[in-house]
Amino acid sequence: MNKGFTAGLLSLSVCFLLIFIPMIFCVNSERKTGSLYLTGGNLLDVTQGKIIPDSLVAIKGNVIIYAGPKKPFDKSSDKTVIDCSGKTLLPGLFDAHIHLGGTSTLGYIPIDDQRKLGAFLYSGVTSVFDLGAIQDWIFSLRDAERKGTRLSPRIFAVGPLFTSPKGHGTEYGVPMSLIPTTDEEAREAVQKLVEAKPDQIKIIYEKGSNHFTSLSYELMEVIIDEAHKHNLTVITHATTLEQAKDAVKAGTDGLAHIVVDQEMSEDLLLNMKQNNLFCIPTLSVFEVFFCGLLSNQKYLEWPLVNKAVCQEIIVDLRKQREIPWIKESSETRMKKFTTAKRNAKMMSDYEIKLALGTDAGNPAVFFGPSAHRELELLVEAGLSPSDAIKAATINAAEILGQGDRLGTISEGKLADILVIEGNPLKDIRNAQNISIVIKNGHILEREELARKINPPEKPSARTEHKAKASKKATPSPKIDTSVAQKIKQAKELMKKGVDTWDPELMKKARASLLGLLAKEKQESLYLLYYIALCDFRLTNYYLASAETDKAETYTKESQRYLEKAMQIDPNFGELDALYASALGFEIALHQEKAMSLGFQIFQYFGKAIEKSPDNPRVHFLKGVSDLFTPEQFGGGPDAAIKTLTKCVEFFEKEDVKDPLKPSWGKEEAYTFLGMAHKQKGETKQTEEYFKKALEINPDYGLAKEELRKLKK
Ligand SMILES: [Zn+2]
Fold it and tell me: Is-above-0.70 flag for pTM?
């Protein structure tokens, strides 16, 4: 009987990381005729790893027309000449493993696309390769960039990734995965995706993983074969030696991560070298996963991080030091990180093509600055600065078939250039001392970009919220005793409806409340609240019985009444918590709304707790949501137990004297606490809490049924 509640709240888990707010941002019109001359700088030839001192780089429109030793040129008026003496010119950086849908936190901060794209440009990253996102969204962003209607680094993208049911990629709760289960489905899925012109095909292969299921070796082979038939390169996510070997054997063109579980074997290295395969080590994301979320405090203090990372992300990250879902011991993790670096160095020694990628979008892996951290980590692993820069430029361009357009500063290539202070070959960190970023022949206004990333005048969400919350509640009209009596009766009826899971009783309660509302001259808070609560229960019921039309109607109704109630009392957190849960039901009904509603849900829970920190029902609704939120996003049974334990403490202290005030939920809280322990296989606590719930309310059907199931 709890199925609907579960289904509804399950959907609360849908992806808060992958959120987008569309925003069109027009780029200045292209400079078609003007020319840009960069003179006197040290020009880095990334293919040779050599510096050409006192150079000249001439750009016409968006194309480099000369790059080499300085030579005389006529200084006509249509030329912009910039003296770069003492500076180094390198190609714009390329982050070849990102997830633009992510937000670099553990979960709850919505960041609009433009701030993310601006962060890359501010950091000198002029091209990115998205390795897994919602298809329509990422390809439309890519199109906008290509049309010049978005101020953005060049975007390359795989679109959705190929994985298995419950495999890696499905945990985000947003449609960014393709899940074929037969050869035929796999071929069809590739053929269909080809129409959207992905830049590569990405496969998740996690065979042997403790966390996820995996595509079978055979299906991986079929997907690769079909992709190759369409002349598409295949990149595979594999992080163990065995997985990597399988992927290479199946014909992958490259690996999206380095192997972390053990040293790479010579046969694999030779095989990759001979077949000209590539690898994107992504040491940045492994540093976070294996060394701790904010282990690298120094990095957080980088001026580049400060400017290019949204401040609310940093604030959020500082609240939580560890990634909750990583359970391995710190020794095991550190060993993996050391292995990852050693393998990167070995690959480099074997002259396997390494491209720089960060996996930005993951917690504490940032859009832009992390590319510089990756450069540093590659050097730490033993690569020369010149090889690290090569990975970040020409190699990344080449793995995407862009070697003739991007990746070096040379004649005929597109003008994506980074001008920095100092020599990066002497110290790779010099690459962070960015002086000028040029993309497609345009000098970017970096300070303007920084202001867009962190607007100076914008009050923080917190202050804004406080200002709103301090609004005075409109006093509710005094409810006369006969009305109060009827509300009490409706409350009792509804409780009975919940205990026995009978929608007719819930509807009866609702009807009587609506009758009262019609008679009242002025809408009162509790009338609206209880109508919304009836709607909430009914939505739950109809979701469970798969009567989606009815569920749809009731969830909309509950939102409508909650909105009215919020106008009467903007400080009553329970309204926000119920609203968050109602939005969760809406996502259960419409998966495609996950993107737009996901983060709203978390905002509403945040507001609810801020407004009513001691209200047990606020924590109850949040706790149930936690229970069905993947651990990756800070949910799971442990998180739920934490929230629900706090919740029952508040329930134990609660003493509602006014019969009009909400008083529901205590037995439900204990029941869900039991269910959280059940998920962990802790039978003793499970039983204890179900019994506790029945002590509070012997008629509560859900606890009765759960206890019965437990005893079977
Ligand atoms: Zn990734």
Answer: no
